[in-house]
Amino acid sequence: MTDSRDDIRAELLCYLVVAQLVAMARTSAWLRTDHLVESGRIWCKANRVRSDWQERVSLGQIAVELAPQVMESSGLTKEQSLVPLFVDGWMLDYASPVVCGIYGVCAGRLTRSA
Predict the structure, then answer these.
(1) Using CA atoms, how far apart are residues 39 and 19, in angstroms rounded to an integer?
(2) In a 10 Å sphere around its CB, with 0-12 CB exposed, 13-18 middle and 19+ buried, how is residue 13 labelled?
(3) Is the distance from CB of 96 to CB of 84 less than 8 angstroms?
């Protein structure tokens, strides 16, 4: 059975991976480390989640590893292909099969490293 903390970590990781995809689609470059850390902080604040900076940095490092793999397997390379992944601004749409697939990759990766 999945712990709610595991779900939260997978959601944050999913968000960071998608943030990396958005950065690549918009700028042809992955997020800088400081922007990735800031993205994690913003997500935590928006979702009222307490997460220490070390955990966010760790998840950010995993996002750096996963984002190219997700981009290659999903074909999410254009900004227009990423827009439908969001609702209400920067909140991920978990009704989207694509978001659910990315979440599954993230949850699986966290399970392997546990």
Answers:
(1) 8
(2) buried
(3) yes
CA-CA-CA-CA dihedral for 27, 32, 38, 43, to nearest 10 = 60
The mean pLDDT value of the chain amounts to 92
Torsion of CA 33, 37, 43, 49, to 10 degrees: 150
- Contact (Cβ atoms closer than 8 angstroms) between residue 65 and residue 113: no
Residue found under tokens 């697939």? 101
Confidence of residue 84 (pLDDT cuts 50, 70, 90): very high
pLDDT at 2: 46
The pLDDT of residue 1 is above 70: no
